[in-house]
Structure formats: structure tokens, C-alpha cells
Amino acid sequence: MHTLKNTLALRLLTSIIIMVPDSSSSCLDGQQTALSPMEDNTWLSVQMGTKAVLCCPRIPPTSVLIITTWKIHLRDKPSCTISLNRETNQTGNNNCTDGRISWASRPDQNPELQIHPVSISHEGDYRCEMGATDGNFEHTYHLQVLVPPEVTLSLEKNRTVECKAIAGRPAAQIFWAPEGDCVTGKEYQDNGTVTTRSRCHYPDGNLSTMTCLVSHQTGNRSQSIDLLPVLGTPESPGSTLLIILYAKLSLLLVILVIVGFAFSQRINGCRE
């Protein structure tokens, strides 16, 4: 039941957030409809290490663009501004020191903003303000940076398996197939990433293979592992090998006793 709820919640989340794929280099202007003097907003999720290109709103064909300004409010850095006056064809107020944030092309031809490569420090708000003869046009991006977690799966003692989704952003969710006696927790890092750790115990000797399922906004991943057999159960190959070993040792012991007895008898005969 919990798995179904988490799956539905994940589908709902991805349906309301615009995702920028790994090879993103095209403007999202076709998905925006700010055609009148109003403010619009887009919640945007971008994977770390990729390229993001942000667009300004479209203006009516009859309007003449005068000035374009990008106002950037990053999460852990001071705000900065990039602007271009179309009448003088000069840039101004460019106090953004991060070289990864720049115009995507010639600003006098296209006011798109480029972030390449995207890092966690680029999370924040990006507002494009356009002054035209027909009024002001604005569009704001609320940028969230996604970090895919590293997934590891290891076998511990007593048929216990540990699955970790390391340094993901946001935190990943872990599910098991089949489900076992599991304990799941999260470790929060200073850089904003989260490590999700889940340990499951499988006392049933009939189960041989476990699969860890990791759900994350950057994509789902899975890893499987074979459990060690439980010794002492009829179905376990380990118990069969142990029985054979015991039988061989017992036979060897009997042979040694017989040989020892025969040797002692021979020595006694020689003495007589």
C-alpha cells in the first residue's frame, strides 16, 4: 500500500515540474504563454552537470523591445543582474561573477540565459524583465538542481542486505522486492545532498535473490544480490555439503580406528 502511494506521489510530482534533460540546450520559450503585461512563473528542475537555457517571455509582434534584464537570486550567493539596452545595443549592470551564467548567444538577437554546467550553487530564482513599447513583460524561473544518487548494494552477516542511495538531491526513496524486515534512514550532508540507507533482514532460507529499487527524480535504478544459504535446512545446498563432509570425516575416523587396531594386534603378536 505504501509503495503504491509513493509511486502515485512521484508521478504527480513529475507531472507538475518541468524537467530539463541531460542534453538540454534549447529554450523553453515554446512552453511559456506570457503574451500580455503580467508575471508568470515556472518551477524548473535541472540535473547537475547539464546545460540549462532559460527564456524570456514573448512580446507581441507589434511591440518594440527596449531593454532586457535578468535578475538572479541564488540560494547561497548575493543577487546579481545582467541587462542589455536594445536602443544603444550595450550591456550594463553585469555584476554576476559566476562565469557559468551568461547570455546563451548574442544578447542583441536573443535574450536567452545560459547556465553551463549547472551546479548545486545555481539553485535559486531567475527573473527575466523585458521593457517594451507595449508594457513590461516578466517571467520567473524557480530553479531546483537535481543530483542523481550513487546506488550501492552489499551483503552483511545473517542474511542482512544494505542498500544505499548516496548523495542524492532530493533524497531518494528505497523499496525492496520482496519486502523484508527493513529499517530505512537518511543522512543529510552540508552541501544539500541526502544519503538514504536501508537495511533488510531475510531469515527465510527459501529466498535466494533480493532486489533494491531506488526511486529518484533523475531516474529509477535497481540492483540485485544473491543471499547466502541458511545452513541446516533441507533445501539448503550448504547443509547437503556439510552432511557429506561429516560423512567423509566419520568414514575416515572409522578407517583410522580399524588400521590402528590391526597395527596394535600385529605388534602384540610379534611380542608373543
Q: Report how far the terminal alpha carbons are from each other.
A: 86 Å
Q: Detail the poorly predicted runs.
A: 1-18, 20-26, 28-38, 232-236
How many beta-strand elements? 17
CATH architecture grouping of the largest domain: Sandwich
Description:
With 272 residues, the chain is α+β, with helices and mostly antiparallel strands. It folds into 2 domains: 23-146, Immunoglobulin-like (Sandwich); 150-226, Immunoglobulin-like (Sandwich), CATH 2.60.40.10. Helix content is 18%, strand content 40%. The chain contains 2 helices and 17 strands. It has a 7-stranded mixed beta sheet. Strands 11-12-15-14 form a 4-stranded antiparallel beta sheet, with no helix packed on it. The relative contact order is 0.12. Mean pLDDT is 80; it is low at 1-18, 20-26, 28-38 and 232-236.
